[in-house]
């Protein structure tokens, strides 16, 4: 790859088995695009934007290129909306020889060309974006006349027209450069997606109120060493970890078949996770606010990164499946540590055989998959807000989760009774006011008895994270 080689890329991996467009198919595609342009200009009488991807060589349609076109269309539509420009018509044309999108916009062609050039110059995929603007008479506005200068070469960044005329680069180099630009851009987008979803999930989790025995907007629960702002500070400190884990997954996905080893990806995340724990402790003055979240979010971020590289749509259930595969050997963790180094969860596992978050992960987080996510989605679909949906998901978790935090503070018998009581309450299919009332009563009880279901809180955060990323 010519445009930065700090992460693995195999261009052939993205086009292997894809259709090779013949010259006849490419020419037919261009002719149909021209026909559609004329028809749209005649029907609407307003300027037309014609969007495509500048993909050299015989591979015109493959998933990564089509994904790039969708990103181009998204950016153009957002830019038009930002300028208050009305879209009168849009249509997508797909054929063996290529893909194009046509947008009729109620604005002067010169202004549309300025927007097009701004997108091409400012976006990481801009060198591949091909945004033509035709005025109402069907005349194409040139880059040079609009102050855009020559289109940059994909390989060297020079004048693309001059490089093409002199055949400065062969087809393989051009294809590798184009695919490299795509991979780099979507890798950057992945980091932004994961960071954005993580911060929203972490802030939402601590904000859901009332959460029995836990820090929320109303009180500090059964805690004297942390408050709402502790979680804000901690969230900001650990956020970069999840971006790094997602990129590690994205890069690991370059390996295919038997070469991709989920357990090896998990092992590669450990050093970054340990650093995140130290960053958390520094931010909170030594208080453990998010250790479980670092583990579960790190796993989910890496799994999402793997799947995001392979496809644009990533179901939450597939993220959880891959997280389970990554942690298939996680039970060996307990054999590595001495008694003095055990966390509360690890000490509970040694004493009672309850696996906590590691066991949840190894099984693909069944409490999240089977209870919390469906409940969150159900309540949101019914029209309730995020707070009440989060509360419903939390109580669903409380009814089934072997929360090692509760066992550590109150013992396994108390946990068992709590699970039965909450499950019985949920079987009555309570309305939202009843959910709030039940949670508030538990909150008072937990504060009095010093019970904190921190494991459920971590799983609620993971539920919200997957919802933000995947739903």
Please characterize this protein's 3D structure.
The chain is an alpha+beta fold. It folds into 2 domains: 11-169, Alpha-Beta Plaits (2-Layer Sandwich); 189-470. The protein contains 19 helices and 4 strands. The chain has helices at residues 11-15, 23-44, 63-82, 109-122, 160-166, 171-207, 228-252, 262-284, 291-310, 316-326, 333-336, 344-352, 356-362, 366-381, 386-398, 404-410, 412-427, 432-449, 454-470; strands at residues 48-53, 87-95, 98-105, 129-134. The protein has a 4-stranded antiparallel beta sheet with strand order 2-3-1-4, with helices on both faces. α15 packs across α18. The protein is elongated, with a radius of gyration of 27 Å. Residues 1-5 have low confidence and may be disordered.
Blueprint of the fold:
Layout: H1 11-15, H2 23-44, E1 48-53, H3 63-82, E2 87-95, E3 98-105, H4 109-122, E4 129-134, H5 160-166, H6 171-207, H7 228-252, H8 262-284, H9 291-310, H10 316-326, H11 333-336, H12 344-352, H13 356-362, H14 366-381, H15 386-398, H16 404-410, H17 412-427, H18 432-449, H19 454-470
Antiparallel strand pairs: 1-3, 1-4, 2-3
Helix pairs in contact: 3-4, 6-7, 6-9, 6-19, 7-8, 7-9, 8-9, 8-10, 9-10, 9-19, 12-16, 14-15, 14-19, 15-18, 15-19, 16-17
